[in-house]
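Exercise (ungraded).
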Amino acid sequence: MKKLIFPFLIFLSFYSIKSFAQETTPNDNSYYFDDDGVSEARNLIKFNSIATLSGEVSFSYERILSKTFTVEFRTGLIMPHYIPDYYEVLEYSESVIKNEGIKGGYSIGVQPKIYYFKAPELAYTGLQLRRRVYNLETQSLTYSDIYIVGGIQKIIMTRMVIDFSTGVGFRLKTFEKINPNDEQSNKELTLVLPLALKIGYIF
Amino acid sequence: MKHLLVSIFLMSFTILFAQSSKVSVQEGAEFKESKKERFAGIISTDKTGYYAIRSKKSTHFLEHYNKKLNKTLFTELNLKEGKKDKDYEFTLSLNNKIYVFSSFKNQKLKKKFLFSQSVNKKTLQVNNDLKKIAEIDYSSKSRYKSGGFSYEVSPDSSKVLIHYGLPYKKDENQKIGFHVLDVSTKQLWAKKMNAPHKSLSNIQDYRVDNDGNVHILGIVYEGDTRKYKRRGKPNYHYEIVSYYSKGTTVKKYPVKIEGKFLTDMQIQIGTNQNIICAGFYSSQGTWSVEGTYFLKINKNSRKIVSKNFKKFDIDFITQNMSVREEKRTKKKKAKGKNVELYEYDLDELIIKPDGSVYLIGEQYYVRVVTTTTTDSNGNTRTTTTYHYYYNDIIVINFSAAGEVKWAEKILKKQHTINDGGFYSSYVACIDGDNIFFVFNDHVKNLYENDKNKYSYFTKSKKSSTLVMVEINNKGQEKKEVVFDAKNYPILVRPLMSSQVSKNEVILLGQRKKVNKLTKLTFKKSKSQTY
């Protein structure tokens, strides 16, 4: 019996020392920094709500690389029905794209971003490179965009992210010639004024 | 020949001015820094030299300079706690130790915490002694509106006041938090409270005295609207609220002159721990100055023991004005109209050991000019230019009893474009009975007696010089050259310079990437009168 009591007492004494240490350690600051890893999160996934209006279901992934630098990759599926970009309505009403002719497509893009304060929050500037390929019934059409973006991103409700951005740049429209002998150029350079409102999650 | 004679004459003047008898200049070695890095000032001094903070966006560096003003060590402050980054708030020097204060926003707890950490002076890194000081609960607000922490140090540097605003509902009084710490950042007392009444808002100044009592200066709106003017009359007054005995006793002191607009006001802890409140007032509105105001609250009786206001006389108002301006102002006065000083900001309230007070203001304004031009192709171009003016300095000397002993206006003209006044303004230094002002000036002004022909300092290195104006205990001023910028690689930034000891000022010089520290040591005057 004595043999059993002795180890039990040792266990109890260790246990009580451990409990006491936990209760009275004044320098234990872990409580203040326990935020379920929100402040350590380096990845963001976002859905671009405005892009759906122009027929694209677009998701992006942003990775924090340093204190102020991030890279955002985007990909999207082009749907058969969409509203043309507002600047297309204004300037290119005779665009080759017609709602009824579209069969689908895809888009990809990359955007390095520099935050003015601390990534991934508040004001930033980025350079967006984006490619959209439309599959039309009779031909294919490619949009190659390059534009400078300015935006603001905020984290709300612990992990939810809202990212609003706008910018200015150029778009190169390249379309497949229906008649190969057509002398008209199959390339067209236009101005592009992007607008994005993304809702996402940080993890 | 004529030109040669003029040149020799001017040179002799420059040489004469360059031989400053009142100040000795010690220059440090030049060093290069990125233009993006911002020198935030000297934070501490000890027998080994000087400690400074430099910032680049969210990165902060601690630097050490030896007594020869050469940089000996610099290190990036590591504000990581495990994998979490804390945000830098400020640095304090207490009892010969340096403390770095940083904060962390905990999104899970919806709280922003303030921490202090001491610095190892040998490595310039923070020690492993993180201590929580204060917290702001922002659960009812966005984390971006969680507010910030600020500090004040008592006159004897024995107490530190950490203060911050707390979120509050629309129908509630403004909510504030205080933490009074000792020199080892140990909390002496803390209080979170609503402001004494709803109309007290716009808190202008916080002070902590040597006993740890807290005094705040705020604006109280008298009507329902938060407007300064109502039917041409002031709709506000200032109020000092003092928290004695660890915040258990609250005293309110209204600061008011009937029918006058108090335009700028500051509080300071005077000798014997009396509260000194001084500033400017106007009859017209909040953007001009008609006179000066002084109020003293006795520490023991906790009552107002002195209250004075004095209108500036016409000679003071017209001092340093051009002949035309002076004529126009005097004519206006003769017609019985009010004449006032315009665009003056109250900068500092300095308490001298004998209890007398210096109130220092500077004329500062920004003029925005937008021009639209169209070229031959019909392209329109619009440009906006910001003109920064830092002009005359006014110094008012109050006796310990609150009477105006003298008022003096130092002639200064500084005009720079699109730089935020990087090289403008002044640094003030008290040495015994005298007060010194150091600033950049146009070299022509050294030998120009005609105020109408005074030239603006424009940050051109060729025409710039660093000058010092000394005002003695009778209010008489004397100007001397400290050094000629032409022979100096950099221009001094007075706003980044500071008094580091009784008779020493450290100046930061900067030109593009080149930086340099310079120490001015003021020599004791043989005579106090000129």
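Further reading is listed at the end of the chapter. For now, observe: Residues 2-24 of chain A form the longest helix (23 residues). The first strand of chain A starts at residue 43 and ends at 48.
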